[in-house]
Specification:
11-stranded mixed sheet; 25 helices; 28 strands; 840 residues
Length: 840
């Protein structure tokens, strides 16, 4: 029997509205996809088009003769010119080839002109810069600059402008994305870039404001513990060889001004913390807890080396950026006083070499940390007059500023100033007093730019003569020469308060102008010949790492806020009794990650846990890991992670009970260069005045610090699987492309390093934080200059498509380096590209 065949009936047609929706969705998807890939094509085309010409010839307006630019495997330019003017012109041109957008951002940061291109979110930053009068200060400096210095700033600016003109139709992609064109470069912009570095290394007034707040709650004896001035571990360069194994108890504390604790002041805690966040846009001191711009440097005589000639090493610790702050270059040209031939790192936006060597000498810097800022409490009336210590009233100066805001309303500022400097109270919204800032840069004579003379120096005498003109930032300079000499000199202008004959010292807090100003008025600057210095010491070793450099009995106060001594102490210990040193040994010390103090604290934390019966199993495991730790802060160390977490957790446990706010943020106001030493002293001596009443003993307190640290850092239950590198990481990203997931996906290229585990901490020679660390590593071999070494963090170029965008990062990260060719033969062998700049 036949069965009826099954018939498939057509389904019900989709409603018209659904069809339209599907078609629209498909069309939108295709459009989005097309826009996405069009954007990728456009961005990559823009990047490719803006890659510099590095071979052949370019006719450039502004040159008097041909200039040769040789580039090596890492894109480092070796510039040869027939005149100094042409050399500096070419340096500006070539640096702008690789770093034009970075240079523009550096000058905009200093001048307070971010909002003009980045919009309303940058108004607060720009207001701060305008209130501090950075741009106006640059104008004043240029107006009073000696003609010979101004000549070379103008030559450099002409070179930058020639590059801008030549690149008008293929500017770096960042300019295209932000839809603006860089204005012409001026001599003032060179000064602004220099002032940016000065601001980074000398901004200390927030610490004075913070200390004033803490002084309202803490008695003098506790403040004295928190703010040590130097330590028994210090080793000033000019000090005789000392025993670094035993405490030296001859470092006097600077007396605290008890009147500061009796005056009622507004609570500006939130203002100060917000101010630190704003300042972190431009200074590495406030980027993270414990972060501080610093550096290492040392030099040893031939008695300690394999060649019988000195070795000099320098790694400057600054904020991590991409591209980095330094640009490598070698410069060669005749000058009226002799040939200039110098190599090293330069600051994009400024001529000449900052750190490096020439044919006779080498030099390096660390930040001296001199106190060149005071805050004054001004007495004003009607926003028109202010009173000085003699009771007289004077007119406040007014300076108008206009902040242009992209996509928003422009902001007008009326900046008021006294004889000390600008009133910065608007930076602290809840401040009721008129506070003025005095800063050495407001004296135009303190901001000389003597690097041409430094680059030309050929012995200790000419080097010191050149350095005597450096006004800011104050630095520790180490020196070596091919004749076998070494030296150290503190340089820069440090104010003398009171009088030259009877200096009064420094104020750690704001100064009441009508009560104390006569004691703290500036009487001049410490004479250069009286700054700490030493030449050819018997030990054959000189080193500084931001800790105290003044010997006992030194008559002037350079600062109260020296950095902790641990890096410097480690360097001296490693060098003083060593011989047969080679450049590789210098690099090994630059990346040293051993911390004596962390190991010492680890033992104390372990002891405390052992003596706390209620300690958990996890804490017992922590104690076992801590007691057997070797003190190396490497990425695989669980003990390093534990001690670091405990150190961070201890401060709120100590401070909050005395500040009366168990859950407040006031304890975060405590920042001090020597705060790690202060913590060590408290943990080692365990004074009863610091023990909170909620703890029966210091063992209980230290155990709680470990427990809180593990909890705050989200430690794993099994601490053997909680290595240091899991929580301490580095990720350096392009400031525009690397911060936006959309832009990152559009470009689809590596725009940063990516998160990587990071070894070292603030107490190791390799001073490493997520946002601050060694910005370059340099070793000068005075026996064979071609066997010197140098590398920067990322690379020479700011262009993501350049092979030199971050080609040096792997070496920096893994602690290797590159030779620094210098002689004609060595440079010729290293040359991979040759460009000739010809007069137009």
């Amino acid at each position: 029997m036949d069965t009826p065949s099954q018939v498939t009936r057509p389904g019900k047609p989709l409603p018209r509205s659904i069809k339209i929706l599907l078609r629209t969705t498909l069309v939108l998807f295709v459009l989005v996809l097309a826009c996405f890939y069009s954007a990728r094509f456009y961005m990559r085309h823009a990047m490719r088009a803006s890659l510099p010409q590095i071979d052949g010839a370019i006719h450039v307006s502004g040159l008097s003769a041909a200039v040769t630019v040789l580039r090596d495997d890492h894109g480092m330019p070796h510039i040869r010119a027939l005149t100094l003017d042409d050399l500096v012109f070419a340096q500006g041109y070539v640096t702008a080839q690789d770093r034009l957008w970075q240079m523009d951002m550096l000058r905009r940061h200093a001048a307070g002109e971010f909002a003009e291109i980045l919009g309303p979110g940058m108004i607060e930053h720009d207001q701060g810069q305008r209130l501090q009068q950075i741009r106006n200060t640059a104008d004043n400096i240029v107006a009073q600059m000696p003609p010979d210095e101004l000549r070379y700033l103008n030559a450099y600016a002409r070179g930058v402008n020639a590059l801008i003109a030549d690149s008008a139709d293929h500017l770096p992609a960042e300019f295209r994305m932000l839809h603006y064109t860089p204005r012409p470069w001026l001599a003032r912009d060179c000064v602004l870039v220099g002032l940016m570095m000065v601001q980074d290394l000398t901004t200390g007034f927030p610490i004075k404001l913070a200390r004033e707040q803490l002084a309202q709650k803490l008695p003098p004896e506790l403040l004295g513990d928190l703010y040590p001035v130097g330590s028994w571990r210090d080793h000033p360069p000019a000090r005789p060889v000392m025993d670094l194994t035993a405490p030296q108890l001859d470092i006097p504390d600077v007396p605290l001004d008890e009147t500061q604790t009796k005056l009622k002041k507004p609570d500006t805690t939130r203002d100060i913390l917000a101010l630190e966040k704003t300042l972190s846009l431009g200074t590495s001191d406030y980027l993270c807890d414990g972060c501080k711009a610093g550096s290492n440097e040392w030099v040893v005589t031939g008695a300690h080396t394999a060649t019988g000639k000195p070795l000099l090493a320098n790694d400057m610790h600054l904020a991590h950026t991409l591209p980095g702050i330094w640009y490598m270059a070698e410069l060669e040209a005749p000058t009226p006083t002799g040939p200039l031939h110098v190599t090293g790192v330069t600051l994009p936006g400024m001529p000449f070499v900052v750190v490096g060597h020439n044919e006779q000498i080498a030099w390096g810097f660390t930040n001296l940390g001199g106190d060149v800022q005071d805050i004054y409490i001004e007495h004003t009336r009607n926003q028109q007059e202010y009173q000085t210590a003699d009771g007289a009233w004077h007119q406040l100066a007014h300076h108008s500023e206009l902040i242009r805001v992209r996509g928003g309303k422009d902001v007008a500022l009326d900046v008021l100033s006294t004889n000390h400097g600008p009133i910065i109270t608007p930076m602290l919204p809840h401040e009721t007093r008129d506070l003025s800032l005095r800063w050495s840069i407001y004296d135009p004579g303190t901001v000389d730019l003597p690097f041409l003379a430094v680059n030309l120096a050929n012995d200790w005498t000419s080097f010191c003569d050149a350095m005597s003109h450096l006004g800011a930032p104050a630095q520790n300079a180490v020196y070596a020469d091919t004749a076998g000499h070494i030296g150290y000199h503190a340089v820069g202008r440090i104010p003398v308060r009171g009088s030259m004959e009877h200096p009064s010292g420094l104020s750690a807090t704001p100064i009441d102008d009508t009560k104390e100003a006569s004691s703290f008025e500036w009487a001049g600057y410490i004479p250069f010949e009286q700054m700490p210095q030493v030449f050819d010491p018997p030990s054959g070793v000189l080193a500084t790492a931001n800790s105290r450099v003044t010997p006992d009995g030194y008559p002037f106060s350079i600062t109260l806020n020296w950095e902790a001594p641990y890096r410097n102490e480690r360097i001296w210990k490693q060098l003083e009794d060593t011989h047969n040193l080679k450049p590789a040994d210098m690099l090994a010390l630059e990346i040293d990650i051993h911390s004596d103090v962390d190991q010492e604290l680890a033992q104390r934390f372990a002891y405390a846990i052992d003596h706390t019966p209620s300690a958990s199993a996890q804490l017992r495991q922590a104690a076992d890991l801590l007691r057997s730790w070797n003190g190396n802060v490497d990425v695989d160390s669980s003990a390093a992670n534990i001690v670091n977490a405990a150190k961070s957790a201890l401060w709120p446990l100590l401070l909050q009970p005395h500040l009366g706010k168990p859950h407040g943020e006031e304890w975060r106001l405590y920042k001090w260069g020597g705060m790690t030493f202060a913590e060590e002293e408290l943990v080692m001596h365990q004074p009863s005045r610091w023990l909170p009443s909620t703890y029966a003993s210091w063992s209980d307190l230290l155990t709680a610090a470990v427990a809180d640290g593990l909890r705050n850092a989200h430690a794993r239950t099994d601490l053997t699987h909680w290595p240091y590198g899991l929580t301490h990481r580095i990720d350096i990203e392009h400031p525009l492309f690397g911060t936006s997931p959309v832009l990152r996906s559009v470009i689809h290229l590596p725009v940063g390093t990516g998160p990587l585990p990071l070894s070292g901490d603030g107490t190791t020679v390799k001073q490493s934080f997520s946002t601050v660390g060694p910005s370059e590593r340099f070793t000068a071999n005075m026996a064979d200059l071609d066997n010197s070494t140098l590398n920067i963090v990322n690379g020479q170029s700011g262009n993501v498509l350049s092979p030199w965008f971050h080609d040096q990062f792997e070496a920096w990260y893994h602690g290797t380096t590159f030779p620094l060719p210098f002689t004609t033969d060595a440079v010729s062998k290293a040359t991979t590209h040759t460009l000739t700049l010809l007069p137009q």
